[in-house]
């Protein structure tokens, strides 16, 4: 093969290599060098690379693009409406709820702050006079008196009936005594019951005015409060029906979604996506920015590089065709 033919073959190959290297260098110069370079005190052109030199502008524009076109109120609201997000929120709420309901809470004494317990004792002491007054007033109520009398009468009747039906000798003796001394005075007994019940409220009111009685009542109330506080609560799941738990989980999910949708504008405003993206991009080392961009565009950049090789090869073929057309060989 003659030297001329070797040169014609070399032309498209060299042109292809030039196209490849040119595009590769152009892409490399987008990211490199990372810093400004100087020679004899003079700045070397095209340093730093395009992306490092315009990093602040790129970060600003990227933040604007994401804030205005990607992470918007509409896009966030639409995402919150999706079944996937709803299911995830319900799962999170269910996990927290299950953890809370299955936790052994111990006694109320451990759950209530000490100042709340002291406040409860103070309220008992403060409200005790009112409670005693109300209690005395309740005993003076005519309807309650009537109910008490009826209960006493029925209890007395049951006692007499049971005694009169005893078949033993001693039972028959008691029956005779009851018929002799009790049944004949039944009207008088009922009058005494009525009088005792009628006077009970007044007598109790007088009794409750005594300091020692009030002290005993107060002590009893405090003991009742202490007993309540020392009673173990255990797991709330044992005290709450599963139906209520299920409804509570559904209700909580709905409330969380409504709050998130309602507060989305303010949350996005507080987050300031544009500022967040701009700050994160500016904080990243330029090498990390390069890796990030290459991870997204590596296939396209490689295609551009090889396209340069193809274009150079085609240009080389055109040159060969022109040479052959002129009869250069």
From TrEMBL:
GO terms for cellular component: endomembrane system. InterPro entries: DUF445 (IPR007383). The chain crosses the membrane at residues 6-31, 303-324. It comes from the Bacteria. The keyword Membrane applies. Keywords: Membrane, Transmembrane, Transmembrane helix. Belongs to the UPF0754 family. This is DUF445 domain-containing protein.
């Amino acid at each position: 093969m003659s030297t001329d033919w070797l040169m014609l073959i070399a032309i498209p190959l060299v042109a292809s290599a030039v196209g490849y290297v040119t595009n590769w260098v152009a892409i490399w110069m987008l990211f490199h060098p990372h810093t400004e370079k100087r020679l004899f005190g003079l700045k070397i052109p095209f340093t730093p690379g395009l992306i490092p030199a315009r990093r602040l502008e790129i970060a600003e524009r990227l933040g604007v693009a994401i804030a205005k076109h990607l992470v918007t109120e509409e896009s966030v609201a639409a995402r919150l409406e999706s079944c996937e997000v709803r299911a995830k929120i319900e799962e999170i709420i269910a996990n927290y709820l299950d953890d809370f309901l299955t936790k052994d809470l111990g006694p109320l004494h451990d759950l209530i702050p000490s100042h709340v317990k002291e406040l409860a004792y103070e309220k008992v002491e403060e409200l005790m006079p009112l409670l005693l007054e109300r209690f005395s007033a309740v005993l003076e109520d005519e309807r309650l008196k009537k109910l008490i009398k009826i209960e006493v009468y029925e209890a007395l009747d049951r006692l007499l009936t049971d005694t009169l039906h005893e078949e033993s000798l001693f039972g028959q003796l008691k029956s005779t005594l009851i018929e002799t001394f009790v049944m004949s005075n039944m009207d008088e007994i009922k009058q005494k019951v009525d009088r005792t019940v009628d006077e009970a409220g007044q007598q109790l009111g007088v009794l409750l005015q005594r300091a020692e009685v009030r002290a005993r009542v107060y002590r009893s109330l405090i003991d009742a409060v202490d007993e309540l506080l020392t009673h173990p609560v255990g797991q709330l799941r044992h005290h709450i029906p599963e139906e209520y738990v299920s409804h509570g989980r559904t209700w909580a999910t709905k409330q969380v979604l409504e709050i998130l949708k309602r507060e989305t504008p303010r949350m996005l405003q507080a987050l300031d996506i544009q500022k967040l993206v701009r700050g994160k991009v500016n904080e990243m080392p330029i090498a990390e920015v390069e890796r990030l961009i290459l991870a997204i565009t590596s296939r396209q950049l490689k295609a551009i590089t090889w396209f340069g090789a193809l274009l150079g090869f085609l240009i080389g073929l055109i040159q060969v065709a022109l040479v052959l057309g002129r009869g250069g060989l």
